[in-house]
Amino acid sequence: MFNQIFTIANRIIYQLIRDRRTMVLLVAVPLVIASIVGVSIPEKQMLDYIAPAVLAVLILFFGFLLTGISFLRERSQGTLERLMASPVSKLDIVGGYLLGFLLFAVLQTMILFFYLIYVLNVSFHGELWQIIVFEIIIGILAVCLGIFISVFARNEFQMVQFIPLIILPQMFLCGLLWPVEQMPEYLQWIARFLPLTYGVDGIRALMLQGQGLLDIGKEIGVLAGYAAGLMILASLTLRRGASA
To answer: d(Cα 29, Cα 66) in Å, to the nearest integer?
Structure first.
């Protein structure tokens, strides 16, 4: 099982590394957006408050986009159908793609985080390794979400159209721009069911309040639950996506 997962993951990693344009965009675009955020918020205290939420949003957004489009490309090129015809379980296939795409999601996460800290001079109070672990959990969620949603898209244009439906509502309701507690009650109710809300709450608790992973067990549990559920759903709907 694990050998098959690693084999699929290695092929994904090698394929993306050979795509130089994708690798450049993978690094450059998040840094450009982070720079715009840093320049547009000159007040240091406000930047320190906004930056953790921006980091969580960017991890989810770019992880979702990279994974969704790359997974869709695998389907359009027939690679996924060939894997489905081989003696490999659907869960192995999803696990292999998850592991392969996760490496690049983690790479983006590390670049973004250290850019915010050492270039934009964003302050943080928690332990560095715990912040990174939590960011990786958000990255896992982003990859699982991208794989699952790509099952329902037939081309890259349709995949991009899912962004206003899946990502933008979470950006506005997760507490990025204003606290969830200050929203109307019905919006607070909706926000409780959005995984990014827990990602923002968790990363702010780590970076602003200096809490540890044990203090944000609820947020970790919710994100892990969403990721596991999406991975299972993706494996169950994989045949439908492969034949689309």
So the answer is: 12
Collapsing DSSP states into helix, strand and coil, what is residue 209?
coil
Position 1 scores a pLDDT of 61
Separation between Cα atoms, residue 102 and residue 19, nearest integer Å: 17
Closest CA to 104 of 77, 141, 52, 67: 67
Strands (E), 51-92: none
Q: Phi and psi dihedrals of 170, rounded to 5?
A: -70, -35
Burial of 107 (0-12, 13-18, 19+ CB in 10 A): middle
Query: Structure pTM?
Result: 0.89
Q: Alpha-carbon distance 192 to 199, whole Å?
A: 11
What is the number of helices (H) and of strands (E) in the chain?
A: 12, 0
